[in-house]
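Possible race condition, two jobs.
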Amino acid sequence: MSSNGTWIDHFPDSFQWSNATLIAKGMAPYGAVALEEIDRIGEKLKARSGEADAWWQEWSAMASRIEQTADKAAAEGRQATAGNYYIRAGNYYFTGERFIAPSEQKFAMYRKALRCFHAGFERRYPNIERVDVPYEGAALAAYFMKAPGVSGRAPTVVLFDGLDNCKEMSVLFCGLEFAKRGWHTLAIDGPGQGESLRLRKIHTRHDYEVTGTAAYNYVTSRPDVDPKKIPVMGYSFGGYYAPRIVAFEKRYAACAAFGAMHWSIYDWVNTIKKVTQVDATKSAQSSFQVPWVFGAKDLDSALEMAKRFDLTGVAGRIECPLLIVHGENDRIVPLDSAQKLYDAAGTKRKTLKIFTAEEGGAEHCQVDNRQVGVDYIADWFAANM
């Protein structure tokens, strides 16, 4: 990657905007964005640098235009084309919603994103089924993507999001690749994630093994799932969730951390607090994100809750094959957190893969070249389950 380019740092003066834009760019291989459309949005945002509402206004303006094109195509019977446009519109609405604080405005934009994603998936991916995963008297929102042409019981990957992503993204960038290998995928918005947080008000928890057990019980209730070949993976904040799950829920066949999480979640939240108080543009997360996900009233309260999100004394309980994938230039989670997880994991069947700038995928969760990360994980699962 050229050190002079703007692929990674689209907005040199704002890591917050650059990181969020790079996440959107990373969806290009899966048809969920168009780079030309992102470039148009970027040019308008550069002209509005510093405007509080610029981010959501420009992303939602593009989303609305693309959605209208999708509606017209659908009305005219051009359903495949409509599906493509709906998926892109959904992704742009979701990207625009990112920096809106929890409010009716935020939830209204999320509902627009969900409407477009659903309309797109129905037309482009009929093998995606919307499902509810029973969870403590409620239900977690999820998609079950079946691998086309597969009969009988098949391996099934349980996939959890990060702090500020959603199942609509992960079912595409992971589910499509897994389906090519004959595996099903359960892409789930767990507590504190996506639809389960926004529309069902289910906040995160430190003991995520409860969620992992609920997901495992759901997939094994299906006649199309091989109960002996169910790995779990999580990306970004999911790099805490997935290892925590397999430390306690021993029925999973393997675990992948698509990006390790901070070894000390407390220190990470404290850093967000300090950075956002000085210059919010230097933080990938907005000041409201962690408290909202945790169900805390503010960052101080979230700090106290974060003390319980700790793999110390937990990682040693991991017995199944474990893969940790990390980027050497990860600016959200330092590389030493990946090494600490690797060293502490109890299993002898463990792999630490570090992507370098030379080979690509050196940023957080390989968002600068997500395909290399997904391919590596899929190949590793195939070899280790």
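Job #2 (started ~2 s after job #1):
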Amino acid sequence: MGFLSFFPSRQAWLAPLLCVALASPIAQVAAQNTSDSSGSSANSTKKKPATTNKQNSKTAQKPSTATTKKTSTAKSTKSSAVKPSNAPSINKKAVAATGATKVASIGAVRSNVVFVQDLSSQAVLYSRNDEGPRPIASITKLMTALIVTDANQNMQEMLEVTQADVDQVKHSRSRLAVGARLTRADMLHIALMSSENRAANALARNYPGGMNAFVAAMNAKARQLGMIQSRFVEPTGLSSDNVSSPRDLVKLLQASASRPTISNYSTDNQQEVSAGNKTPTVFRNTNMLVTNPAWDIKVSKTGFINEAGQCLVMVTRINNRDTAIVLLNAEGKGTRIYDAMKIKQMVQAKQQVAATDQAEIESVEKEI
């Protein structure tokens, strides 16, 4: 039965128009840039026979659908009409390809261990060598600070630096002489901001139960936070036996950021402290990014021993989203700072591309 025989004779005047519509070049349909123009063309082809009543409309539409499947011209029209419905899928593939390109660009970051996570969605944005525990150097002091702040000890109590606080492991230098006396608050401040080892050790010694109780509290807190790949043996990070994994460190960062004292002290630019009768000493932050107005850093800690390399961990706002950055085992003092800046640029670019493509996808879906 011919295609036009499906239409009632009283609508025979439609036949020439339908023939012209079906004979239209496919290239003309493909040349249309917007999905709504293709969609409206398909809709008009279906709706033209409906000129009398609902029954005639149903009768007219059924033959049109059946004939479309049988004829090569209708098959081509169907192929063109499918394009708008496929548009979102194409855009999603483009988004995935773009994301893969951005992830590949992590090669420009030189730290041996890289882990970047969006704390709102928990999505891992970038990672490299993020499995397993490794030495974390002075990042340990974030856990030390957690134990001190959660113990609710008197922050104005005076603590004295003793010979027991002198580094016997790495023989590192300190600006706090034996006999120096500072408040617990000042000890915590410079331990976080300037990574003062003697201050961190003094804080642990003056914990109820002494050093052993303090270290036990550090490991208990790690278990409480779900840091299953972490272990602590002392409060400064000078021992390479203090280990953690990048994913565990994100949990430590989140806990630290939730304590205002740790957040403020770790991101402060500098602090002047008076140790006894000596001239006040100015301590500065070991992370130069805290002074950069382009950065909004919630918590920060640097670290270094030979076994851990140069380390930096932060929670910072990027495109109005809290982002955790973990950089371990970098070579050279400036590498970790360069890497953090590079990561921020890449995260910003990735989020902007994703937002743009998502908007395009939603626009196409609405038009369809």
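The chain has two domains: 3-102, 110-364.
Logs attached separately.
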